[in-house]
Structures are given as C-alpha cells and as structure tokens.
Design a protein that fits this description.
By secondary structure, this protein is of the alpha/beta class. Helices cover 49% and strands 12% of the residues. It has twelve helices and seven strands. It has helices spanning 10-21, 41-46, 62-71, 89-101, 117-120, 130-143, 157-185, 193-200, 209-220, 236-247, 252-264, 270-283, and strands spanning 2-6, 25-29, 53-56, 80-83, 105-112, 123-127, 149-153. Strands 2-1-3-4-5-6-7 form a seven-stranded mixed beta sheet, with helices on both faces. Helix 7 packs across helix 12 (270-283).
C-alpha cells in the first residue's frame, strides 16, 4: 500500500524503513530530515491517492495538535489519519470526533518497540473505526511481528491501552532497578550484575526482554559509570496515575515508580542509573553523563 509518514525520528524513521522493506510505498515529511520526500504537509497530502493514509509519528501535545489542524482541511471523505504517538487518549477521542464530522477517520495507534522495532517489529494497539483499521491493516501486518497488532476498540482505546502499558513499564523497570541496587550494595558479596541478569534470563519467573536489555547495559558498562541517575518521564505514567485516581483504582506500584523518577532528579542513585540505562537500551533515549568523581562501583 501507499501511505505518508510524518516524523522521521527514532521511531518514525525505522518504521518507514521497515515498511519500505515490506514492499510499501512511503512518502515522508519531517521538518529537519533531509531524506524526506515532501517539503510540507500540503505536498505530502498531494503525493497520496485516495483513500489517503497519513501516519503521524511526532511528539504528543502541541506538535500533534498542529499537524492535525494542518492536515484535516487537506484530507477528504474516506481518508485515514493515524496518530502513532503517545497522545492522551482523551485528546484522541476529541480529534476523532472532529475528523469524523468531515468524513475523515482518525485511528489512535499506541506503538511499542523502541529502537529495536526495525528488526524485531512493533506492538501496535489501535483504536478507531473498524473500516479504517482494515484500510491500514496491510501496513500494520508489516510493522508488527505475528500477533503483534490488534484493533482494541473505538476511538481512544489504542492510546488508553498504550498509556496503561507504559504505566506497567514504569513499575517493571523500577522493580529491576531496586533489586539490582540491593545486589550491588550488600558489602558481603561482589556480584557480577551482568552475570546475574543473564542467569535470570533462563528459566526464571522474572525473565523478560527488559532484563535482557539490562544485561546488555551491564556488559557495556558494569558500574553504569557513564550514566547519571536522572530518569525522565514522558507523560504516560502521570496520566495513568491521574486516571487511576479519578477511577479510584489503586496503583501503588506504578505510582511509587513514577515518584521514584521524580526522586532521581534530586539525588543520583544506582537504581536511577538502572532505569536510565534501560530507557537508553529499549528506546534510544538520551542519558546524562555522570559527574566526574562520582562513585560508580566497588
């Protein structure tokens, strides 16, 4: 199929490459990417045939809102706009209603896979109208591994499921971070943390892809000496906790994990280093260099 991709960053660029390798024709636009095929959103829309499919892979909030406002007048009845960023699901519901009034279908697609998606595939959670989902399904089947994409419900559900997914991710990462800090800090032993992480990958009930990535991080930098223990949060964890409060649903582990990220900005702990290393491993997120003279290992 032919489609347009807006945004050629860590995710959008690799998704474009995976689609092209799968035989799809992809037109692209990004403000600062020289490899783009269109110089504006207007030109991108003219390069596509109806029903047009335009997929946004840009930051949530104002960048997505601006792209939506620019594209909506350019699209026509039956065209599909896919928001693959981490937008708040309530914004996605609102945008879908506005698009529907013009005959345009908005799909909210939560995408997980980080910088490894090019080779491993992406897990894609899609909300919106079923006919629009069917229109983009050829692209979804190329982007995802077997069983890795689904139409999870009406508008907003894709980003809602992705929001909760990321909240769970916060909790899992924090549990690993705290456990490995304890392994490191007991003076009685001098453990090889990469060895322990690798050991737990075989038969352990705590084995996971995150643990595999952590093993790689320890192998590359056993004491995580090059990483400052400053852990950013990109919004979904906060939204998850806010929604839980409104719904009176207890989320003690996820809430604690979110607050632990806030703590990391006040003092540089080894647990925060583990969290930062994991974000760099699975998502290519930038890490801050450790201050000179900081204690890194025994």
């Amino acid at each position: 199929m032919k489609l347009g991709i807006v945004g050629l960053g860590r995710m959008g660029g690799n998704m474009t490459e995976r689609l092209r390798r799968g035989g799809h024709e992809v037109e692209t636009y990004a403000r600062t990417a020289p490899e783009r095929t269109a110089d504006s959103l207007v030109e991108l829309a003219t390069r596509l045939e109806q029903p047009r499919v335009v997929w946004l892979m840009i930051p949530a909030g104002e960048p997505t809102e601006m792209a939506f406002r620019t594209l909506l007048p350019l699209l026509e009845d039956g065209d599909v706009l896919v928001d693959g960023g981490n937008s708040n699901f309530r914004d996605s519901i609102r945008r879908a209603e506005e698009a529907r009034a013009k005959g345009v279908c908005l799909l909210d697609a939560g995408v997980s896979g980080g910088i490894w998606g090019l080779t491993e595939g992406y897990c894609i959670m899609v909300g919106g109208d079923a006919p629009a989902f069917a229109t983009v399904e050829p692209a979804l089947s190329t982007l995802a591994p077997e069983g890795g994409y689904a139409h999870v419900g009406p508008s907003g559900t894709g980003h809602f499921v992705k929001m909760v997914h990321n909240g769970i991710e916060y909790g899992l990462m924090q549990a690993y971070a705290e456990g490995f800090e304890l392994l490191r800090e007991i003076d009685l032993f001098e453990l090889d943390l990469a060895q322990v992480a690798g050991l737990w990958l075989h038969g352990s009930v705590v084995r996971s892809w995150l643990l595999e990535l952590l093993e790689r991080a320890f192998e590359a930098d056993p004491g995580l000496a090059g990483i400052r223990g400053y852990v950013q949060d990109s919004g979904e964890g906060r939204w998850t906790v806010h929604e839980a409060i409104d719904a009176a649903v207890p989320l003690p582990a996820i809430s604690a994990a979110l607050f632990a990220r806030f703590t990391s900005r006040q003092e540089d702990s080894f647990a925060a280093k583990v969290n930062a290393a994991l974000r760099a491993q699975f998502g290519g997120h930038a890490v801050e260099a450790a201050a000179r003279g900081e204690r890194t290992s025994e």
